[in-house]
Write a structure and sequence with these properties.
The complex is a heterotrimer of chains A (about 100), B (about 170) and C (about 625). In chain A, about 60% of the residues are buried. With about 100 residues, chain A is mainly α. Chain A has three helices and no strands. Chain A has helices spanning about 5-25, 25-50, 55-85. The mean pLDDT of chain A is about 85. Chain B has six helices and no strands. The longest helix of chain B is centred in the middle third of the chain and has 25 residues, at about 50-75. Chain B is globular, with a radius of gyration of 21 Å. Chain C is mostly helical and about 625 residues long. Chain C is about 70% helix and about 5% strand. In chain C, strands 1-2 form a two-stranded antiparallel sheet. The longest helix of chain C has about 45 residues, at about 560-605. The radius of gyration of chain C is 30 Å and the shape is globular. Chains in contact: A-B, A-C, B-C. The interface between A and B is large, with 72 and 86 residues.
């Protein structure tokens, strides 16, 4: 379990998150993909913490999680609103922000 | 040695869960697979001597955030979300670009780390983390509390039922 | 103490105050301030005049002072400098003296006008500009004054700018002047090129030192005369002056009789040494002057508007002044300028009094019998008419005689004869005016009749002062017959304007010339009496017999129409074409085109803003990939 391995895992997870985002067609699941990417970042932080500064890295991870939680709360509320308006959470044909 | 083994098991579990999540069409399954993935990740955090992070990963991510997702899922009728196959453009393009990303990041890794780094020792227990949080990162700490407050208010306001027009 | 440098100061300050605050100041204050300003200038002019020593050595009677260095560009050095010599003294005296009388008159005449403050502001500004013109020590500064009076002329002619005819007249005056100014400016430039400086001292030295080749001198003199023709309303640039009568009558008196229009004559006299070097130019000047004198006189014969008659009369008399200067008698030309200022402004102001009394009527055909009803206006008007007609013992006689005498003495018989013919015409149209307005039965409209009243003293007192001057001023320039020293005027001007190169007439010829001009005046007055006093049916009978001539004259030889068709119209059409082709077609198209292009690119760029989340995410990912790529490789 070398640092490189851990970071490699982090990279794989991040790429998987990206792919997930493009593959999925509904808002909610795409949101989940974003969470995956955030987690990959957290993993990278902690992977490096072993060699650089462990305590600080955990503090940063703490912040990332907090922000992710806040973001999830608001984002999910928005998803709810979108669903109420349009009765669907598909993203392919919702181009309200066009132009 | 054991640590390595556990690591690989957890790693495979995590990646596998994420892959399953990608492949599954059912949103409920997606969420649950992610719970599994995050839990595995929490275990990995623990292996990395980040006890605090591991615990809050399970508590917050797997326990709270994903539960939130499940709540919303239950409020939404997912039937609409599964649509007939059309416009694959983004999917394949995304996949291709993801591959490129993978390659690039791989290169990044190789360039940066040629050898293993050893532990440098030092405490990483919650006490140390707490100390760091309340001294070096005091400002961000306070600001995140405000952030959470804002998110709370925002979520409540956004989530309120619309008043019926009459 | 160099009083003269302060002469233009008071009117300038007053004008500034009135332009800024004129609307808010009480009328009494404005009247007082404006008149006082000119009064101060007058007093300073007199003081400076007295300060000129009586010695005849020229050095002590030509003063100059540099107020501040102004233009210094390469070889051109034109300072803001004033020059005071006998010629300047006379001009300043006329401008400020007559100006003061007219300011006072205006207090009464413009009393009911809405834009009282603006009027006096413009009048003061004019006084300032005219003073700059006559005080200038070099041609560049003189040109500043030249343009300044042109501007004020525009402002004052178009004073009642809501009246379309007045606005058009102001525009016409300014534009025609501008044409003359083009020639003037070219003249100045050529002068500078040849002499190296525009200061009068430098020009005079160059002229005396035979530095200027005759061909160059002729060219310069002619170009400058083009400017003078514009400003002093000679053929072919006189067309603005009759239209200028749209302005208030005191303005006509001051600007278009006594001062501004005389600027051209002043300029020629100032540069007399230059004109002496170019006899061909002098001949042109004299010829144009004489022709204009007769030409304008013929038009005045058939005008029905009292002010128009006086306007053409002014054009005609200006012609006389140029006649004088053209034959080398600059002193005589300036003398006529001097006397004309008095009797012509008298005539205009008296006409204003008549118009005021008749509640605005200006048509001669609607006047008559005013002699008894306007007991203070009539006598002074008569004096002015007698003066301009050249009746002996009044000023006009002396000055006109001086010009004609010199013309014949120099052997210029043709222009001299034209001058005599003009004298007949002058007397005739002037007394036609007098008889039509003041004699005979009253042909007034009922409204005018009921309100008929003599003008108040504020209008009549300046008239009386001017009448006195119209008589007395002549005695300053008694003919040489009565002794060489009798001509005080010419003696005073000697260091600046040398008397015409010796052409002498025998005493007998001079007397017969005087007799001839008296006879001309008598003939004119007599014929006018015949046509308009005794047998009032005669004019219409004659008009019926030669209708083509009458039409030609009353339409002013159709000159305005000719100019319009040949010059104005083609220019207007050409500029419209240019406007459409270039302004709209090219410039507007370029500007619009730029906007359209920007819009096009905006729309084009907007294609990537599809509103779909995945597309945006793709873009972000692409950016990240490129960024990483650059970082890594």
């Amino acid at each position: 379990m070398t640092t490189t391995t851990v970071l490699g895992l982090s990279v794989i997870l991040f790429v998987l998150g990206v792919v997930a985002f493009f593959v999925k067609r509904d808002l909610l699941t795409q949101f989940m993909a974003v969470e995956i990417m955030l987690n990959a970042a957290n993993l990278a932080f902690l992977g490096l913490a072993r060699t650089i500064d462990r305590a600080d890295a955990q503090a940063i991870v703490f912040f990332v999680m907090t922000v992710a939680a806040a973001e999830a709360a608001v984002g999910l509320a928005i998803v709810l609103l979108v669903f109420r308006r349009r009765r669907s959470i598909r993203t392919e044909d919702q181009n309200g922000m066009r132009g | 040695m054991t640590a390595d083994l556990i690591f690989w098991v957890l790693a495979v579990l995590c990646v596998g869960a994420v892959a399953a999540m990608i492949l599954s069409r059912n949103q409920g399954h997606n969420a649950l697979f992610l719970v599994l993935a995050f839990s595995a990740l929490g275990g990995i955090f623990g292996l990395l001597d980040a006890a605090f992070a591991a615990v809050i990963q399970i508590l917050v991510y797997a326990g709270a955030i994903m539960v939130l997702f499940l709540f919303v899922l239950m409020m939404i009728d997912p039937r609409e979300a599964i649509a007939p196959e059309r416009r694959q453009r983004a999917k394949y393009l995304g996949g291709a670009m993801g591959l490129i990303l993978l390659v690039e990041l791989g290169f990044a890794l190789r360039g940066l780390f040629d050898s293993n780094f050893a532990f440098d020792g030092g405490s990483a227990g919650p006490a140390a983390v707490g100390r760091s949080l309340f001294t070096t990162y005091l400002y961000p700490f306070e600001i995140t509390s405000v952030l959470i407050l804002a998110a709370l208010v925002g979520a409540v306001v956004l989530g309120k039922k619309e008043k019926p027009e009459s | 103490m160099p009083f003269y440098i302060f002469i233009p100061a008071a009117p300038a300050l007053s004008a500034l105050v009135l332009f800024l605050f004129g609307r808010r100041l009480p009328r009494k204050f404005i009247s007082l301030q404006a008149s006082l300003a000119v009064g101060i200038s007058f007093v300073l002019s007199v003081a400076a005049f007295i300060g000129l020593p009586a010695a005849s050595s020229s050095g002590e009677r030509i003063l100059s002072r540099t107020i501040f260095p102004w233009i210094s560009a390469g070889r051109l050095q034109a300072d803001f400098s004033f020059r005071f010599d006998p010629l300047t003294a006379i001009m300043a005296f006329v401008v400020t003296g007559v100006g003061l009388l007219i300011h006072v008159y205006s207090i009464g005449y413009m009393a009911k006008d809405r834009d009282y403050g603006r009027y006096f502001a413009c009048l003061n500004l004019f006084t300032f500009a005219m003073l700059i013109l006559v005080l200038a020590e070099n041609m560049v500064l003189m040109f500043v004054g030249w343009e300044g009076v042109g501007l004020c002329s525009y402002l004052l002619i178009g004073f009642w700018f809501e009246k379309p005819s007045a606005a058009a007249a102001g525009k016409k005056a300014f534009l025609v002047n501008r044409i003359g100014d083009a020639g003037f400016l070219l003249g100045i430039l050529f002068l500078f090129a040849v002499v190296g400086t525009t200061s009068f001292y430098g020009i005079e030295s160059a002229a005396l030192g035979a530095v200027i080749p005759p061909a160059a001198a002729t060219l310069i003199a002619l170009l400058l005369f083009v400017g003078a023709a514009g400003k002093s309303a000679q053929i072919p640039l006189y067309i603005w002056l009759p239209d200028a009568m749209e302005g208030p009558t005191p303005v006509s008196a001051l600007i278009h009789a006594a001062t501004m229009v005389t600027a051209g004559v002043y300029m020629v006299a100032r540069l007399n040494l230059l004109y002496d070097l170019a006899p061909a130019a002098g001949q042109v000047v004299a010829l144009v002057g004489a022709l204009t004198a007769v030409y304008a006189g013929t038009i005045a014969l058939v005008q029905n508007d009292i002010k128009r008659v006086l306007a053409y009369s002014t054009i005609s008399q200006l012609g006389y002044m140029f006649l004088g200067c053209g034959v080398g008698a600059y002193g005589a030309g300036i003398f006529h300028l001097f006397t004309h200022a008095f009797f012509k402004s008298l005539l205009f102001l008296a006409a204003g009094s008549v118009i005021h009394a008749l509640s605005g009527e200006q048509d001669l055909r609607k006047m008559g019998g005013l002699r008894k009803r306007l007991p203070r206006t009539y006598p002074v008007f008569l004096i002015g008419a007698l003066a301009i007609a050249g009746v002996p013992f009044l000023s006009g006689f002396f000055s006109k005689d001086a010009i004609l005498t010199q013309a014949f003495a120099q052997g210029r018989y043709f222009v001299g004869a034209l001058g005599l013919a003009g004298a007949v015409l002058t007397a005739f149209y002037m007394f036609r005016l007098v008889f039509l307005a003041f004699f005979g039965e009253a042909r007034l409209s009922p409204g005018a009749k009921s309100h008929l009243h003599e003008s108040p003293p504020i209008l009549t007192v300046p008239l009386m002062i001017l009448a006195f001057l119209s008589v007395a001023a002549g005695y300053l320039g008694l003919p040489a017959l009565l002794g060489k020293r009798a001509n005080l005027f010419a003696g005073f001007l000697e260091p600046v304007l040398r008397p015409a190169a010796e052409g002498h007439l025998s005493a007998g010829t001079e007397w017969s010339l005087i007799f001839a001009s008296v006879a001309a005046a008598a003939m004119g007055i007599g014929l006018a009496a015949l046509f308009y006093l005794k047998n009032t049916a005669l004019p219409s009978r004659w008009a019926a017999r030669i209708p083509w001539l009458y039409d030609l004259l009353s339409h002013k030889y159709f000159v305005d129409e000719i100019y319009g068709a040949v010059i104005v119209n083609p220019l207007v059409r050409a500029s419209e074409w240019t406007y459409r082709r270039f302004d709209l077609g090219i410039i507007d198209a370029a500007v619009d085109g730029t906007a359209k292009t920007a819009g096009f690119f905006g729309k084009a760029a907007g294609i990537i803003q599809t509103g779909l989340i995945k597309d945006y995410a793709l873009a972000i990912l692409l950016g990240v990939l490129i960024f990483l790529g650059v970082l890594l490789f």
